[in-house]
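Homework help board

Subject: predicted structure for assignment chain

Our instructor gave us this sequence and asked us to write out the predicted structure in token form, then describe one feature. I got the tokens but I'm not sure how to describe them. Can anyone check?
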Amino acid sequence: MMCGGLESITKGSITIDGAPVTGPRTSTGVMFQESTLLPWKSVLDNVLFPIEILQRPRKEFLHRAKSLLSMTGLEGFENHKPHQLSGGMRQRAAICRALVYDPDILLMDEPFSALDAITRDEMNDALLDIWDRYTKTALFVTHSIREAVYLADRILVMHRRPATVIADIKVPIPRPRDPSAGETKIFNELCAELRGMIEHSHRATRKAPAHA
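My token output:
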């Protein structure tokens, strides 16, 4: 959340497109672990909520909001309330909300972690389709190795404590990607490599002497 300007930076600095992050940016889209949709608003009104907050003309973004809903399979659900949607549908609406004002970067904090395995795979495919169309820069946090390899162009592997980068890996899998990528040799070799790094990091943490 430091990259989004929602938490104070404790050490070092963060820049986006050469500009330091000193607080919330109107050109940053954010997705959380939960959809955080407003329960009293319709799906369409939830998607357009950032436009309301930014005090921009609603009618100028209405077509974009409806196009995003259609692209993510939510056409016909514009007037539904969040409780009438499945978990995956709510997260699709949250993606639309994050993209409606055309941000230059998308921050995603384990957005699919609460979903079942099948729905999570569907959401990964939907996200790739959105990326192919909009080519947004996205910073995606996940604990799933396969999800990281499937979605990313670049993977930063983090050590638990302290939270430091222990590896910076480029993913040599071409785009566009589809589920068949997960069956390839290079995909599974990279997953195994990442798993080995993480296990080694965990073993090193357990063996480290405790400080008095």
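Reply (TA_rk): Your tokens look well-formed. For the description, you could write something like this. The longest strand covers residues 165-170. That's the kind of observation they're looking for.
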